[in-house]
Design brief:
Blueprint (H helix, E strand, L loop, with lengths): L5 E7 L2 E6 L4 E6 L12 E6 L2 E8 L7 E3 H6 L12 E2 L5 E2 L3 E10 L2 E10 L9 E3 L1 H6 L3 E3 L4 E5 L4 E5 L10
Parallel strand pairs: 5-11, 6-10
Antiparallel strand pairs: 1-2, 2-3, 4-5, 4-9, 6-11, 7-8, 9-10, 12-13, 13-14
Length: 173
Amino acid sequence: ENIIPLLGIWLKGNTLHVSNEIGQQILHANLPPHSLDYDKEITLNVVVDGWLLSNILIDTGVEVNVLTLDAWVQMGRPPLQPSSNVLFMANQTKATPIGVLKDASITIQGAKFTGDFEVLALAESDSFPALLGHPWCYANNVDLWFNKGYISFENKEERVIIPLTDGKSHALC
């Protein structure tokens, strides 16, 4: 299988163009208008260890990936490893993880990734089942292009580019 490295990504109007190293256009996609509401959370629909989780948050400012206790139970309580972390929440309260779901498989629009999730009992877990934080974003070269209207990330084999929309879930699995 040939893997062609990307040479360029640029936006002309509302159209995203991607070219490879020899200048061939390999992607041409229409994006939503730039009048997007970025006060909304960035969410994706993601498959984690075979379970579809809707509205996973992407938050580059969080130092761990989080899976809520409710989501972990719905996933059938997969085995956890002990966690040595004590987390400080946004309101400065301490939270002790129940454990760590190690090397979980993460699938977004067919692209495969892995990540560790700290499992937490959160009062607001009905609003999101999981959160992909800084470790996942860093490991997968996440780029948030608010002014261009898309998020992109990559594994060793492919790059995923998803248009940002008006606060609804942005990706299907």
